[in-house]
Amino acid sequence: MSVHPRKPAPATPGAGKLPLPEVAELKRRGDRITMVTAYDAPSALLADRAGVELILVGDTAAMVMLGHESTVPVTLDELIFLTRAVTRSARRPLVVGDLPFGSYEISDEQAVGSAIRFVKEGGADVVKLEGAGRMLSRVRAIAESNIGVMGHIGLTPQSATRLGGFRAQGRTADAALALYDEALALQRAGAFAIVLEAVPAPVAARITEALDVPTIGIGAGAGCDGQVLVWHDLLGLYDGATPRFVKRYAELAGEIEDALGRYVADVRSGAFPQEQHTYSIPDAELERFELALSDRH
Ligand code: KIV
Questions:
Q1: Does any ligand 1 atom lie closer than 6 A to the CB of residue 225?
Q2: How far apart are CA 226 and CA 230, in angstroms?
Q3: pTM score, two decimals?
Q4: Which residues contact 258 (CB under 8 A, 6 or more apart)?
Q5: 206-265: per-residue pLDDT in tens?
Q6: How far is the CA of 75 from the centre of ligand 1 (A)?
Q7: Count of alpha carbons within 13 angstroms of residue 186, beta-carbon side
Q8: Do 149 and 191 meet the contact criterion of CB atoms below 8 Å apart?
């Protein structure tokens, strides 16, 4: 018997990588797009099997994986490391590498260099970055380098301090209009899709109608072309406060805590391991072993 029989489980049978132009096609056909974050190989495999179109290796890894209090501290190297694990098992979904704070703000060259690293070293299919304004030229530069780039406006957590905290955006007519213009400008700059985070649903719906490229909403209502949730929020794996737009589809933290508690109790009581968890040795070999040991004394 093999000691380590674990093999990577097969991904979605026969499924090739989703072609990037298919994402816009989904919008044209009125089919909703699904995106979820993932930060490791087993999660990416499960997301692939569930049929999501897009897996985001988000900078939320800073908070839900690495224990930071915001998304700001995570580095490009750290996200590339996680992306490599995700791309090892995600077959069908497009894997989106999330450019972290500090990896694209300085210049277009820096942004293109970071995007290339995500693709070459992490195996990401496309990248995402936050903001419009000065970031439009970063989007243009990345798109012109033949790397698909996703925009992200509304609540952009990397600039939460400037925005006055984690709060909804576009809640006045002027602010809503500014978001609308930013979305159109991102599309013109070459973004293939745009995340709208914490934006009032009617505003997100009007933006979605105005764009040819899809919108992916998080806290932006059902009028978006697709939805994204953070893995740990969706599965109830994260103990911290979650925003109001999160729907938890499971409470896995409780289940895991319970399982670990039972494991600890079993080890302490001797209830684990049992015979079926161990390996046998032929009686004759065991006898020879014992004899050899007794000869030593
Ligand atoms: O990093 C992330 O997980 C994100 C999503 C919240 C869209 O940017």
A1: no
A2: 14
A3: 0.93
A4: none
A5: 999 999 999 999 999 999 999 999 999 999 997 767 889 999 999 999 999 999 999 999
A6: 15
A7: 33
A8: yes
